[in-house]
Design a protein that fits this description.
The structure is a single chain. The protein is built from twelve helices and seven strands. By secondary structure, the chain is α+β, with helices and mostly antiparallel strands. The radius of gyration is 30 Å and the shape is elongated. The protein starts with a helix and ends with a strand.
Amino acid sequence: MERTEQDHQERVQLADMIEHRAEDIVDRWLQQVRAGATASRVPRTDLSDGIRDYLRHLGELLRGGQPLDGIGLSVWGDVARAHALTRVRLGFDVTQLFHELVILRRVTTHVLREEGLWDGKQAEGILDDLNDLIDAAIYSSIKSYIDFRDYATRRAEAEHIGFLIHELKNPLGAAVIATEQLRAQDLSPEQRRLCEILDRNIDRIRRMIDDVLLAERLQVGEVQSRPIEVTLGPLFKDAVEVFQRVASGKGLELKVTCDPSLTLRADPNLTLSATENLLDNAIKYTDAGEVTFDVEDHAGEVVFHVRDQCSGLSPAELRVIFEPFKRAHFGKPGTGLGLAIARRAVEAQGGTIHAESSAEAGCHFWFTLPRT
């Protein structure tokens, strides 16, 4: 009999033994795991269901016949994700998750040793395969646990911020109504000037609220990309006109180079959001000179460039420039969310965003989007 066929039969025998002794493995595992303070308070079923899934999938992998050398984390897929999500919900930390899977490996090995499978070098090789599979399960589960834990933390933060923003909207709405009522009165020129100041600041607060909400929604994945066929001329027309007026008001020039007939399949709202935030950032931090916006059509992707003549950024600042509330330049109005929103709007579409700068002067931001 060829070695590969013999290996397969030995693995099938190992899978049969695991299936035959599964309940014994689970009982011994439970006895050891429930000795911990956290696990002792968790119902038996919540603890053990995931372990049964591991044993069942372990048997399937052993019977499958595929090579087990260099086994990857992906083979555990939904089993590891479901188990990790349960542990996040139960309040386990990552050390407890690791500990219970190490116990599973130890208990399974002990039970199989009782079955007489620990005799000879061939059996050692089979059990090495078993340990490799369980090690992959451990690493896959830990990775999934960290992903779920971080997502749960971000979502809780987003819900908290959303509640605060909702509470802010009530007094803001009252301020808007009061300003409208004042404007309806017979006001002096000075009073009208004060109303205009109120309008500008209320509008600024509203934009800040919208930015925070959008940033949090993008952070937790609540904003989904909905790509359609987009022509860049109509998409950017109004935004370019607005930013050209803003730049002109600061004595700057906004130069645009873009084929208006260029098309790609993208989410128009996310693409426009990313572009507007980059242009707003460039004009805000440029006090003299020009800002340029160029679009290049490359094979398979479209590249959007925004260049400014700001005072420049250091390498340390560039490393965090796309993180929320990280502001490289102070003394300018803003929340520090514009570039974070741009990044997430681009990445939600499968694109990439980048920045470079000379510490003396000028920044270059660019992002890419796939053509299809």
